[in-house]
């Protein structure tokens, strides 16, 4: 399998982490999105959305959207709850990540890390909504070890990707002791060095 | 099962349509989100995100996030492809809906239908991105009957919800003959009267 991605993008790292965790063989093909690497005619044949991550299976078929990719790669593994209700809770977190967390927490970081803006130049609405997403995670994780109960799942992979580097987008993780405990737990499960 | 929703919200209608299509019994509980109906202390006990749709199963357990709910309710039905790769393509469209379609196509409509703005008052960036999402759908659907090949799936339910009422948000569906053909096909499958 070929995994096309930007190794500084949380969405792309989700795919790498799941492959590594499940010992799925893949070759990583680095795509520089800022230089238009995901909008070349060749790349658009792989993914009409022009987005990374994209994976190309050994038979040439491709898949897009980070959470859909990891859900496919991890099917039948211990990263997906067997119980349908728990799997649905996992899905709910993953959809929430895409509609209410990533558009703010990741986008704050994008403006600073990729576009070189200062924290003070960020749209205050982005920052406010980023903190609202973190507030929600802090409240939820106070009552549970991982996002869906005691068992690690794809929901944790999905949500940790941009949460662990939220400080790079000017969001202050020092306010969130419960999130920091959870990040450390997830980094331990995935064998990652601490992001901060 | 109790289904809490706003019957003018595409996200909520997804749940209703799937229940109706699969003949799942439910009672519909109308929530007026503009009047704060999803932020009351009682409602926040059902869904800590304070969002509709929310479903309450017969045993009292709850589920949130429209696409996660319909994925749960439709598991094992003909609305979810049996083939894992096709199911992953369905998931990809559903995640794309939440990160690249709904935040623009639905939000344009929200400003007009719920907040009473005029089309000319819409943020041009919202409108531009709404059209970009529709452009992508038009291109994709030119080569396929439904979003994931010839078989109707939850991807169609998810994407049609706000696409069929995009004109209520000031987006001109007359530009999109292929999308209009697909909307008509999906409305026929779901037994819905035409939205326009």
Automatic annotation (TrEMBL), chains A, B:
Residues 1-81 form the GST N-terminal domain. Keywords: Oxidoreductase. The keyword Oxidoreductase applies. This is Disulfide-bond oxidoreductase YfcG. Residues 83-196 form the GST C-terminal domain. One of its GO terms (molecular function) is oxidoreductase activity. Its EC number is 1.8.4.-. It is an enzyme of class 1 (oxidoreductase). The keyword ATP-binding does not apply.
